[in-house]
Design brief:
255 residues; mainly alpha; Arc Repressor Mutant, subunit A; Tetracycline Repressor, domain 2; 2 domains; 12 helices; 64% helix
Length: 255
């Protein structure tokens, strides 16, 4: 990841070497007793147990029974460790063999699997994104989504834009459900109940007459009537995106 000082130049090849395990082993000093995978796996275990805030070079070293300084033989910085953890926590998309064969079904499954991973391992959402995906696991997911559109008339620019849009939607919705889950734990109000609670708050706010468009939404009682699950809300929003993709495909077919 880019260093903190602007005067230093960051080399993306450095991170690629770490992610692809092509970084040359150092020749100075004693040979380490660990592997890079063991170091990264320890970080993932701590994050699964304590969240990202619990991950430190000191804790990773303690779990492995080595000194903090010895870790730098394997990973140059904590920022590099976090990038490596994100890659390791992203599984190979072997489940795609059971996905539908049409483009819409496959992109739907892609979005759902991405959301499932990020909600289950919510600490991944807390890792700052400083580079595009560069690891083999993340490349496999990109290739899978792009391949879902292979038999369509979409251009390669179209496909990449759609991949970014759907991935961004899944990531944003994952953040929202993680935040809601934390709110549920704090308030005792379930996801399905929040609509009605929010409706009452909006009624108070719109009674001032300051928000005419919002008032019409409140008067329609859309929030009060909605008891949709998080999964249903996710599908509802995703359908808008995929309808747009379908419209673009139809446009490309017409030439």
């Amino acid at each position: 990841m880019p260093p903190g000082e602007a005067s230093e130049k960051w080399d993306p090849a450095h991170l690629m070497d770490l992610l692809w395990r092509t970084r040359p082993r150092g020749t100075r000093g004693p040979r380490g007793s660990l592997s890079l995978d063991e170091v990264v796996a320890a970080g993932v275990e701590i994050a699964d147990e304590e969240g990202l805030a619990g991950v430190s070079m000191r804790k990773v070293a303690g779990r492995l029974g080595v000194t903090v300084m010895s870790l730098y033989r394997y990973v140059p910085s904590k920022e590099d460790l976090l990038d490596l953890m994100f890659e390791m926590a992203t599984p190979e998309p072997t489940m795609a063999a059971d996905w539908p064969t049409d483009w819409r079904g496959r992109l739907t499954a892609y979005a759902h699997e991405m959301r499932k991973l990020l909600v289950e391992r919510s600490w991944m959402l807390d890792i700052p994104i400083s580079t595009p995906p560069m690891g083999p696991h993340n490349f496999a997911w990109m290739d899978l989504a792009l391949g879902a559109m292979a038999d369509t008339p979409l251009t390669e620019d179209d496909k990449l834009g759609i991949l970014i849009l759907i991935s961004g939607y899944a990531m944003n919705e994952s953040r929202q459900i993680v935040s809601m889950n934390r709110a549920v734990a704090r308030t005792g109000v379930s996801y399905e109940e929040w609509g009605e609670v929010y409706h009452r708050m909006l009624e108070r706010a719109t009674a001032t007459g300051r928000f005419p468009a919002l008032t019409r939404v409140v008067e329609s009682e859309v929030f009060a009537r909605s008891h949709a699950t998080a999964e249903e809300d996710f599908d509802y929003g995703l359908s808008f995106l995929l309808d747009g993709v379908a419209a673009l495909i139809a446009q490309r077919e017409k030439g």
